[in-house]
Amino acid sequence: MSGLSQSPRKLLKVTEAIGAVFIFFAGAALHFTFEWSGHNVFVGLFSAVNESVWEHLKLAYFPAVWLGLVQYALLRKHYPNFFAGKATGVFSVPVIIVVGFYGYQAIFRSHNLAYDIGLFVFSVVVGQFVSYKMVVKYGNRSPPQLLPVIALAAYAVAFFAFTFEPPRLEPFRDPITGEYGIHAALHHHHHSGH
Deepest of 10, 111, 120, 144, by most Cβ within 10 A of its Cβ? Predict the structure, then answer.
């Protein structure tokens, strides 16, 4: 480990690589945590509360930010502007997922679970790679830029708000129930007599 502490770039590279695996598994878990928690509303803030495209974006966002906070704690001396790079990586993921998901639908007019999982893995790997490259490039700037941190926080606020009151737009609609937000799940939960 001493070798890593001497080389911040190596530590960054290792944590981004391990991080991709962490985000994949944590994201997979967040797909089910809302259900496992008995539809706990607090858990729902961080979990997919329905099958909409938007709610699936949480699965990549929250693990990436949790990872980023740990990385920042380890690397902030070397990379005070860490979150400028991290934010670029984090925001590249929803772009890839949304373009990839609707692109596939437009071409094949269908839905493929294996493709969706592959798309998630691919987007996370790209996001981590972009994050690594951008932190190396911009991370040592001082004072740190505030805008990327504000953007990441605003994205979290949007996830929290849209859990309850999402816009009535296609990416927010649960394709199975046709409903929106956490109400889709709570509604069905009550009706199924649990």
Answer: 120
Cα separation, 72 vs 80, in Å, equals: 8
Q: Are 190 and 71 in contact (CB under 8 A)?
A: no
CB 67 within 8 A of CB 12: no
Q: Provide the residue count of the chain.
A: 194
CA distance 142 to 91: 22
Which pTM was predicted?
A: 0.91
The Cα–Cα gap between 64 and 23 comes to 6
> Whole-angstrom Cα distance, residue 98 to residue 53?
7
Contact 10, 4 (CB under 8 A): yes
Cβ-contact 99, 148 below 8 angstroms: no
Q: Are 88 and 135 in contact (CB under 8 A)?
A: no
